[in-house]
Amino acid sequence: MSFIRVLIANRGEIARRIQRGCRKLGLESVAVFSEADRDAPFVVEADHAVSIGPATPSASYLNVAAILEAARAIGADAVHPGYGFLSENADFAAAVEAAGLVFIGPEARAIARMGSKIEAKAAAEAAGVPVLPGYRGVDQSDTRLLQEAKALGTPFLVKASAGGGGRGMRLVTDMADAPEAIASTRAEAQGAFGDPAVFLERFAARARHVEVQILGDTHGTVVHLGDRDCSLQRNHQKLIEEAPAPDLPDDLRDDMRTAAVRLAQAIGYRSAGTVEYLYDPERAEYYFLEMNTRLQVEHPVTEAVTGIDLVEWQLRIARGEAVGFGQSDLRFDGHAIEVRIAAEDPARNFQPETGTITLWVPPSGVRLDTGVGEGSVVSHHYDSMLAKLVVHAPDRAQAIRETVAAIDRFAAGGVGLNLAFQRALLTHPDFAALRHHTAGLAELFPGGWRPPEPDAQSRALAALALHLHLTPQDGNTPWQTLGAWRLTAPAGRPGAAYYWASGDDEPIRVESNGYGQSIILPDGAGLATEAAKLGEGRLTARIDGIPREYIAHLCRAKNHWQVHLSTLDGLAGFALETLEDRYFQAASGKTGGADTLVAPMPGAVDELRVAVGDRVAAGDTLVVLEAMKLLQSLTAPVSGIVADIYCAPGDTVAGQAPLIKLDQEEAR
What are the residue boundaries of the ATP-grasp domain, all occurrences included (predicted)? Predict the structure, then answer.
């Protein structure tokens, strides 16, 4: 089973991570890429690269024939699937092996068995692993499912047998909603996974998500590499992961770990895998959730506390090597936290962000697995996760502090990120006190999360940064060296520049005071600075005689300037307008009427729910848009009659593109 050239059937940060593993063992890496990723870092850094098709995942990263043809053309002799895409596709694993290549992962039969949630739970039961009460029978009729639902009682979950990634799941708290939950889950399961089978499971309301990393070789050895906690989630997708799982009773932790090994041994598992559990602290019980037959996104925290390189051992096991250590050889050192950095706006229901990254200066001294850099284009075609920030410290409290400090040093711009939200999670008292759970995001932020309100000094510094950005500081012509106040100073009048915070009628005033600048806010509050300079993503100035430095980056939005500035609560964004911006908007008028539904971001039209002539009410879902692997329901902005439809299912649309025109005059 020897191999030299490894094709990586994935993209982004995980492709780069596998490339590092290949280099460590002296193996060659092959990147396959879509047209959208032609200039991506993982393509540039690979030993070989092959184009496999258009940007759409189904035509490239999910195109088995194209990937296998790329492997044949480049002479690859092994394939690593990474995670996501085809990583848990048993047919792909079988096709790789049928092509005479080594699949770096478990056997196809193990992927198929654990890929069916129904079969996986049956295997867990057979291995003596606790499972949640529910119905997993072959009778999928509505009558039988509703009968079992009544016997189970609320609350319960309807879940797709082939589901994953948070899709194909409905929570039922009222039995009257059960028929619709079953029908919609079945429809989503068929559309997303090609398998309409569903099962029912009791819902553990305040459970934590704990998982055990295992490693098995082809010689029958299986070891566990400890546990992780992944309880901070939104829509069943993980936000922050940590290892080891904190505050578990020792006997229960040992049971979880040995049960995971027992299950892996029972199915003859090889390679890296993860057994996931729901842990109910109130009952001090745990239940098998699923087994992931691949490398996990959160594998770096396990690597941090064990010192074991999981990608390296995936490659070694695939070559037939035996795991080079026993269970008693493993030591767990300290605590590690991983933060997923995503291009999304948590304050707008996690709406994905797209665009070009114009600044990317990560903090030093911590691990960052990333698929992007300055100049990278963030497309709507793929997942919004861009990077993973990993911190390792002696204990959990210090790991939290160091992660927050690393976030505060992360300078990025051009595309909105979720860093401020992740910081708010890490600093929330419930996270420190371990009161969080898998469905607890609403408890942490009732009414939804909102960015912290910047203080007066931060608002003033944001205006100063924009002023310095627009005022050439190193020019050598009169037009470059003379500011507005210099032209008016001889007349005894201090000149000033004006900037408006988005939505404000009164401006922020920036004027010279001879040694620096004075910034006056609309409410009269002011700030005096000396020796202020802007450059290389940093704003430096003396404030009250003390030299200070801030992360500061500016980029142009559609009709305003966006200033990213570090504050006491982390990196904050400020939307500011110049006099020219306000004049232009006043002269051109507002765009996009209230009677037109527009796309909030680039994406693909997944579903169109209305036809011309339909009467709709404000808030009704008209279009379902897919962007960054998420479905966004777009609702009617007003009540009215559908007058025109500018899109159809399957269309790719740009951000702010008009989708549906409503006639308000005929609304009742």
Answer: 121-319
